[in-house]
Specification:
Blueprint: H1 42-79, H2 90-95
């Protein structure tokens, strides 16, 4: 995680250009690039966990929406006698 390829010689922070000489009286200063830590960053792990939680929550919301839509379609059809209302019932076939 968070491993940038080594970019030599300036690195990721060395992308600037001085277009003119400094005015008289100003001295140059040494401003090295900050040292970066190579390891596991707890903040990145927390972001990872948050995205997992967000993905599971989005999946749950989708599941509930599909389930509710299914129930709205199926339950009224079952109350009206089902989709196979024209099919013979057990009592009708037993009487023949």
């Amino acid at each position: 995680m968070n491993l940038w390829a080594e970019v030599e010689p300036a690195g990721a922070y060395g992308g600037y250009l001085i277009a003119a000489d400094a005015p008289a009286g100003l001295d140059a200063i040494l401003s090295p690039a900050p040292e970066s830590e190579r390891g596991v960053n707890l903040q990145n792990l927390a972001y990872f966990a948050q995205w997992i939680f967000f993905g599971l929550f989005a999946f749950y919301i989708w599941y509930r929406m599909v389930k509710d839509a299914w129930q709205e379609e199926v339950e009224p059809a079952e109350e009206e006698g089902g989709e196979d209302a024209d099919a013979p019932t057990e009592t009708a076939s037993a009487e023949k």
